[in-house]
Amino acid sequence: MMIVEAKDLTKRYGDYEALHSLSFEVQEGSIVAIVGPNGAGKSTLIRLIAGMLKRTSGIIRVFGKDPWSDYEAQRRISLVLDRTYLPQFLTVEEVLRDMASKFGKTMSDVVPLLEEFSASVFLKSKIKDLSTGTKQKIQIIFSLIKDPSLVLADEPTANLDIASRFEVYNTFLELKERGVTVIISSHLASELLSISTHLLGINGGTLKYMNSVSTLIRDDLMEEFYVVVDNVKKAINASAGFKIKVKGNEIKVKGDLADFVRALTSRGVRILYIRNSILEKSVMGELGWK
Ligand SMILES: Nc1ncnc2c1ncn2[C@@H]1O[C@H](COP(=O)(O)OP(=O)(O)OP(=O)(O)O)[C@@H](O)[C@H]1O
């Protein structure tokens, strides 16, 4: 089923055209990564899909309706932003109870959500005392109370360290398992590759790429990543069971990137950078983004 349809979608801010005639479709159950450099138009696109901005021309349909004017479409969408807007001095429980009551639900509807995302231990914690990664996770759980069919996330991992970023990525994978369609914008394309089904690349307001991740990358190389770490010796010790090759402070690894990141960070190794050379060659090249 088609969840989002854009046809010649154009957005102008005054005289400035931020998005030029974009056409694409998003199918139910996808995780779409919107990638592109700063100023590419990612936030503008997310806000058009969310119905927070009005298109200048062209068509945008979400669940077959115009998200700007159709309440039913808006009701099925949740938006997660880059920073927490939750009230800092309330507990997780207080915030969730308020939100639940807004949608005619009670805590007994919300508690299973917390359990599903392994967040029950934070129930009595104040928002201000949570780590940035956990705050973001709670924000995602919060966005699920209304039972959305589509979750939009605009740079949800900005300002997070690598371990927290993967915590958030795993939360998106869990959403997919619940049948929710997810659209995430980010400039960290390499990392998103490990969880996304599709990549939508934009640069300078123009759609450069929209395809499934599996057609983008040769299967045999798909799961090959380069991870730059602060302490190579520690990282090698933490890499038992993984197929690695070491060059300088860079480790080439084949396999599940999320598992590898967990293994390193749990042993105190700090990850400085992750890249996937195939992605960089094929996507960045097509985006004209160096
Ligand atoms: N309200 C606005 N008025 C005028 N121009 C705007 C407005 N919002 C965004 N723009 C411009 O539109 C272009 C796209 O901005 P947008 O925020 O969508 O890009 P982005 O890819 O999300 O960038 P970033 O990663 O830096 O947030 C940029 O050139 C930006 O300066």
From TrEMBL:
It holds the Pfam family ABC_tran. Residues 4-229 form the ABC transporter domain. It comes from Sulfuracidifex tepidarius. InterPro entries: AAA+_ATPase (IPR003593), ABC_transporter-like_ATP-bd (IPR003439), ABC_Transporter_VariousFunc (IPR051782), P-loop_NTPase (IPR027417). The lineage of its organism: Archaea, Thermoproteota, Thermoprotei, Sulfolobales, Sulfolobaceae. SUPFAM superfamilies: P-loop containing nucleoside triphosphate hydrolases. The keyword Transport applies. The keyword Secreted does not apply. Keywords: ATP-binding, Nucleotide-binding, Transport. GO terms for molecular function: ATP binding; ATP hydrolysis activity. Gene3D superfamilies: P-loop containing nucleotide triphosphate hydrolases (3.40.50.300). This is Branched-chain amino acid transport ATP-binding protein LivG.
